[in-house]
């Protein structure tokens, strides 16, 4: 049975669980449940702290897991990245009090830097040749400067609201762009392939829509450039020999732009539908 680590709390948990549910797997009924066996799919789910997932998977005690790229890096585990799951997007940034003299990376030299991701930060600073004193905290890192234990912080930023409220401003380069990843134990990526196919199906169903439209035969080439699909658009004959029917997947966010382009080109009867499930 495949043994899978799933975030039990935090911002990644809900998205991870709903993705697994959409992919047809059993999910827990109550948040106190830490272990669940999905007999039908021959999978065992272990609900663990997001920060610990890479450690379990890296040691091989669990086969695969869902966690953030930043947490994977910070764990220094041997787990390998299998796929980007597209949710839980964030950036990892440096910040210091608004109006302070911190402008660039080198301004951190010799200063105290608070973070809950000490390994991620040490590796980054070492590779950029900057030496700082790292103050390891567990969370709510934004308060560290105000409370006098650090001169600057390095933390997860999403909207930036938490930083702003703490009177901090971002400076320096983007340390890391992170999203949730499917990770596997070393040498076990093959074991993840069926789960991966299902999760990729969910990603495609969320990211793409189906375009169906009629197109004059002499415009097929140009229309195919507008809707190339993932591999290639399906083109079917119509009763009227001068027209064909075209079907292709299009990124959902481009829906209206692509409809405009097709209409202006001469396509008609343009219909767009959602994808319920997919296996690419
Ligand atoms: N707005 C956000 N705030 C915090 N983490 C986010 C955000 N968006 C995405 N993430 C990602 O979520 C993961 C961190 O999850 P979480 O905050 O649940 O863990 P944690 O900070 O270790 O736990 P906790 O906050 O419960 O102490 C990281 O991969 C991070 O990049
Ligand atoms: O840019 P924002 O949208 O404000 O989000 C980023 C904040 O959210 C996270 O905190 P979390 O709630 O996980 O608490 P923590 O700091 O204790 O981990 C993160 O550590 C930042 O503090
Ligand atoms: Mg957190």
Automatic annotation (TrEMBL):
Compartments (UniProt record): Cytoplasm
Gene Ontology molecular function, alphabetical: ATP binding; ATP phosphoribosyltransferase activity; magnesium ion binding
Enzyme Commission number(s): 2.4.2.17
Transmembrane segments: none
Keyword vocabulary terms for this entry: Amino-acid biosynthesis, ATP-binding, Cytoplasm, Glycosyltransferase, Histidine biosynthesis, Magnesium, Metal-binding, Nucleotide-binding, Transferase
Domain of life: Bacteria
Enzyme class: transferase
Needed cofactors: Mg(2+)
Gene3D superfamilies, per database record: 3.30.70.120, Periplasmic binding protein-like II (3.40.190.10)
Gene Ontology annotations for the cellular component aspect, listed alphabetically: cytoplasm
Pathway entry: Amino-acid biosynthesis; L-histidine biosynthesis; L-histidine from 5-phospho-alpha-D-ribose 1-diphosphate: step 1/9
Histidine biosynthesis HisG C-terminal domain span: 205-276
Domain ATP phosphoribosyltransferase catalytic, residue spans: 49-200
Family: Belongs to the ATP phosphoribosyltransferase family. Long subfamily.
Protein name stated in the entry: ATP phosphoribosyltransferase
